[in-house]
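User: Predict the structure for this protein chain, please.
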Amino acid sequence: MKKIIAIAALSGLLVVSCGDDKKTDTTSAPTTSAGPVEFDLASVSADDAAKACAEGKTLATGKLTLATGDPAFPPYVIDDKPESGQGFESAIALAVAKSMGFEGAAISWVRTSFDTAAAGSDSNFDFNLQQFSINEDRLKVVSFSDPYYTSAQSVLGYADGPAAGVTKLSDLKKLKLGGAAGTTSLQFITDVIKPDTAPFAFNSNADAKTALDNKQIDAIITDLPTGLYISAVEIEGTKVFGQFAIDAGGAGDQWGLLFVKDNPLVECANLALKALTASGALAAITQQWMGDYNGAPTLGKD
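Assistant: Here is the predicted structure, written as structure tokens:
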């Protein structure tokens, strides 16, 4: 998925989770506030296997070049300063780097566009993070790491609307729900939530707003990154009330670190991600920046 707020500056198009992205097994509103401090990069140690793997495989010997967008936006990078470690992808990048044995002055950042990087046209980085969804078309021209994030389903509506008190999945059964036509979100409503009223399928955010205004629906179910975009840009006065754990069903896009095609460093990054998953660091980063920072708590399944 492209940068949520960057897209807003360019168009008013509906951003939805595409059902054709490659799925790989994995464990599961601009602002200058840095959010609650939960993850500490100092807690990450170099992983012996990842460090040994990375030796001699970077663009510059003993250095690691990371890439992000120009500019980069919250919650992925705070204040457009990826080197700070503040923001979801900034924290992920520095944690992966440290796990591979790179930190401080050994790390440098460059900027690329989303489109040229995804098309395999850029090669001035070791890896790139810009919410790149892993899919078959992209895999023809670039390589990806294992997923570092799988988008969860979320619920949003007007801040003072009927969904404001939702704390668990069963709270949604009595509500009138809507989802974008042809998405995993609409299927999540039907197969997992199973509401008392048949869901409303909308084709645009304008349709969704009209349905909310006319009380045809009480809330929208969508993947979290799209929900944040809609709330921040598309439908004023709405709020993401929470997100569902991946094991609740209806997982959306998976994001991976993007590499030049067939880059041998992919294996090393995967070892680093495996170590970060095992230590709990990846989960802590995700909770801080894709949960607490956005005010989108994980809702109970029952």
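The first helix runs from residue 4 to 10.
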